[in-house]
Amino acid sequence: MRKKHLAMTLSRLKGFSSPKPELEQYRTPGDVAAEMLWLAGSLGDIAGKVVADLGAGTGVLAVGACLMGAGRVYAVEIDEHALAVAGENARALGLGDCIEFLHMDVSKFSETVDTVVMNPPFGSQSPHADRPFLLKAFEVAGVVYSVHLAKPEVRRFIETFSVDNGFRVSHRLSMPFELPAQFFFHRKPVERILVDVYRFERLTVDGTPV
Ligand code: SAH
Questions:
Q1: Which three-class secondary structure state does DSSP give residue 155?
Q2: pLDDT in tens, 10-32
Q3: How far is ligand 1, taken at its centre, from the CA of residue 98, in Å?
Q4: Model-level pTM greater than 0.90?
Q5: For residue range 135-155, what is the model confidence (pLDDT) as tens digits?
Q6: 4 partner at 20 to 30 Å CA-CA among 40, 64, 99, 166?
Q7: How far is the CA of 164 from the centre of ligand 1 (A)?
């Protein structure tokens, strides 16, 4: 599969039917998801691996990981309506057996995995909403991909927080991210923001990548 094709397939998936602002339910646009998954695939972090999508929403990243050859994917999501849509999306592409859907708070997830792919809440509704996601990802995986706002203060936080938790940023790609006007507090039809897609890897005790 080519990256463009992956982006198109993911952008055609069913979205949130009634997005909940308090959970920051913005789906990852197909091009951003494809960029993340393509990087992960090229670095050997997806094919045949056990992957977790924390805050899976309607399953864009979980489905994408399966399309890229993941061995098994856990889709962890607190909102059962979103998870039902993720299930529909996976089945529509014949990927129902690749994904295990877990209806729970990310902090309760307890499997060990190779790779986490996630687009957590950015924390614009409740500050630091991304922290439990990063903490859990750093607890269960050796390699973590995540999306955050491309702002100097966020970058500083992410750098420090990852090192404090035994990880380092190995890659960072900045990309435009289109937010549809799905919430009443958005004034423009499409809000274009800039995000950073990160890859983190676990460090050994002497500070080298595992
Ligand atoms: N990863 C999806 C959705 C991103 S929106 C995508 O790429 O399209 C963030 C998601 O995290 C939402 O679906 C929201 O319901 C979920 N979420 C927020 N807090 C959560 C928590 N504490 N535990 C599990 N899921 C949570």
A1: helix
A2: 999 999 988 888 888 889 999 99
A3: 20
A4: yes
A5: 999 999 999 999 999 999 999
A6: 99
A7: 24
CA torsion angle 141 175 18 88 (round to 10)? -60
Domain ranges of the chain: 3-202
Nearest to 133 by CA among 123, 142, 58: 123
Query: Which residues does ligand 1 sit against, CB inside 6 Å?
Result: 23-28, 55-58, 60-61, 76-79, 82, 105-106, 119-121
Amino acid at 100: E
Q: Residue whose CA is closest, atom 17 of ligand 1?
A: 55
User: Which DSSP helix (H) or strand (E) runs through 192?
Assistant: strand 190-202
State the maximum Cα–Cα separation within the chain, in Å, rounded to a whole number. Answer: 49
Mutate to test the pocket of ligand 1, among 119, 193, 197 (most ligand atoms within 8 A of CB): 119
Q: Whose CA is nearest to atom 3 of ligand 1?
A: 57
How far is Cα 13 from Cα 142, in angstroms, rounded to an integer? 29
Kindly report the protein residue whose alpha carbon is nearest to atom 13 of ligand 1.
57
Q: What's the one-letter identity of residue 22?
A: E
Give 171 Cα–ligand 1 centroid separation in angstroms. 23
Q: What is the CATH number of domain 3-202?
A: 3.40.50.150
